Amino acid sequence: MTATPALGTPGDLQPASPDLLRSVFRRHAAGVAVITARGPAGPVGFTATSLTSVSAEPPLISFGIGAGASSWPAVSATDHIGVHILGEHQEELAATFARSGADRFGAPTAWREGPESVPVLDGVLAWLVCRIVARVPAGDHRIVIAEVLLGDPAGAGRPLLYHQGRFSGLRD
């Protein structure tokens, strides 16, 4: 019989806190996406690692966004968003959309107006245009649920990941 390792000593355990949650999720590798929308003053977007497939029938996705995020006012008011799956060659694009105060749609970001006036980024692994069906309050964030309307899965390359507080690619 093999002994089961202990969960940890009392000195290792931490009470629930924002720091504990951040520390645990740094260990969780996540794919990197950029969410875009058309706002009253122009395009907005942000880097998201919370993108999830919710349902195949109907095709639904979800993502989280901070209620204090600069993109939230546009996302809260729009009907449509773009979802872009980034490739490992797009680390700088991910950093640009994650950086507060950055000119996210200025050069060198390549983009065009897509269906439903959604900003569509060029060179991504895949993209979707979705219609928002729900915005659910969740602490200091909102969970946005959106129905997929159309997309393009044909980009080439390998996915960009976020792990331990930095972007990286897959290892073979």
UniProtKB/TrEMBL annotation:
SUPFAM superfamilies, sorted: FMN-binding split barrel (SSF50475)
Keywords: Oxidoreductase
Record-linked SMART domains: Flavin_Reduct (SM00903)
Gene3D superfamilies reported in the protein's UniProt record: Electron Transport, Fmn-binding Protein, Chain A
Residues spanning the membrane: none
InterPro entries attached to this UniProt entry: Flavin_Rdtase-like_dom, NADH-dep_flavin_reductase, Split_barrel_FMN-bd
Protein name: Flavin reductase family protein
The Flavin reductase like domain, residue ranges: 25-169
PANTHER family: FLAVIN REDUCTASE, FMN REDUCTASE (NADH) RUTF
Species for this entry: Streptomyces similanensis
Lineage, uppermost ranks: Bacteria, Bacillati, Actinomycetota, Actinomycetes, Kitasatosporales
